[in-house]
From TrEMBL:
One term of GO molecular function: phosphoenolpyruvate-protein phosphotransferase activity
Superkingdom of origin: Bacteria
EC number from the UniProt entry: 2.7.3.9
Full protein name: Phosphoenolpyruvate-protein phosphotransferase
Alphabetized UniProt keyword annotations: Cytoplasm, Kinase, Magnesium, Metal-binding, Phosphotransferase system, Sugar transport, Transferase, Transport
Function (record text): General (non sugar-specific) component of the phosphoenolpyruvate-dependent sugar phosphotransferase system (sugar PTS). This major carbohydrate active-transport system catalyzes the phosphorylation of incoming sugar substrates concomitantly with their translocation across the cell membrane. Enzyme I transfers the phosphoryl group from phosphoenolpyruvate (PEP) to the phosphoryl carrier protein (HPr).
Domain PEP-utilising enzyme C-terminal intervals: 10-286
Lineage: Bacteria, Bacillati, Actinomycetota, Actinomycetes, Micrococcales
Length: 321
């Protein structure tokens, strides 16, 4: 039961039938690592590197970046750590990467598009990550299993570009975020090149419903339970199964205990969230088998809107199979 979830023993994330579903942390600073581990994080599913540099007026040096990445990687020895290259723009502008005069920054030169337009910055970040990876692996405590991904990938060509350049720097596992509907719809092609996909449900919802995630007047549209969003997630899940590649979720949706079950039913193989959400999500996953999760997801998919999807999932989750 949820009330006792916080005091339940910390076990790896899993469904009732034993299917492992690693529960990972979203972090914006290595200083959060110890708390994440204490709360049961099995690794990091999203390290938002842009948070380190929001107040910088110039691009960070390789040496500056290495300090942060080494602190992060050494905090998770042997564990998976997914680092996102700078996601600058819209809600997270970086003065050294973005043009402040775009009329529609959410639709502008942001994420991987901005990095590609300033490719030196991307190359320096990949250099810093590769160096931090090598240094921590050689250190006595050991390093992490570093995965690197690009934000705001919208085309197959962008996925190819990023995975190729990341591999040039010795990154062993290179993937993409799926947070634009185009990349969800083409996930079966994108996962030919990319080693993994991680779905950012915050932006995926914003772009699917065409509703600014920061604008209160359209906040009602920003609901990842919307069956249109769920269908897109299913596309990515199916593509992951087709290619035998991992599909994580790293948007806020993964922190909703019931939606977490739906996401797994749609094909998610790991969930990443604010560390404080891990205990409740762990307890919720343990209540259902993979077959039940699929049935709960089907019930939500059959709905016309977010509220009905949530209610249908609640009812399916309460019905013993
Ligand atoms: C997302 O869009 O869901 C995501 C995880 O990235 P961010 O919230 O940092 O844009
Ligand atoms: Mg995003």
């Amino acid at each position: 039961d949820r009330a006792s979830a916080a005091s339940a023993p910390i076990t790896p994330g899993a469904l009732a039938d034993g299917t492992p579903i690693p529960l990972l942390a979203n972090l914006g600073n290595p200083a959060g690592a110890a708390e994440a581990v204490a709360l049961g994080a099995e690794g990091v599913g999203l390290f938002r590197t842009e948070f380190l540099f929001l107040s910088s007026s110039s691009a960070p040096t390789i040496a500056q970046q290495r300090v942060s990445y080494e602190a992060l990687l050494s905090a998770f020895p042997g564990k998976k750590v997914v680092v996102r290259v700078l996601d600058a723009g819209a809600d997270k502008p970086l003065p050294f990467l973005n043009d402040a005069h775009e009329e529609n920054p959410a639709l502008g030169l942001r994420g991987l598009r901005a990095l590609r337009a300033s490719e030196d910055i991307l190359r320096e970040q990949l250099t810093a990550l590769a160096e931090a990876d090598a240094a921590t692996r050689a250190a006595p405590g050991g390093g992490a299993d570093l995965w690197v991904m690009a934000p705001m990938v919208a085309t197959v060509e962008e996925a190819r570009y990023f995975t190729a350049i990341a591999r040039d720097y010795g990154i062993r596992t290179a993937g993409v975020m799926v947070e634009v509907p185009s990349s969800a719809l083409l996930a079966d092609r994108i996962l030919i090149d990319a080693d993994f996909a991680s779905i950012g449900t915050n932006d995926l919802t914003q772009y699917t419903l065409a509703a600014d995630r920061l604008l209160g007047s359209v906040a009602a549209f920003q609901d990842p339970w919307n069956p249109a969003v769920l269908r897109l997630i299913r596309e990515v899940g199916d593509a992951g199964r087709l290619h035998g590649k991992p599909v994580g979720i790293c948007g806020e949706a993964a922190a909703d205990p019931l939606l977490a079950v739906v996401l797994v039913g749609l094909g998610a193989t790991s969930l990443s969230m604010a560390p404080t959400a891990i205990a409740d999500v762990r307890a919720s996953l343990l209540e259902h088998s993979l077959d039940e999760a699929k049935a709960i997801a089907e019930a939500a998919l059959a709905a016309n809107d977010a509220a009905t999807a949530r209610a249908a999932a609640q009812e399916a989750a309460a019905t013993p199979t």
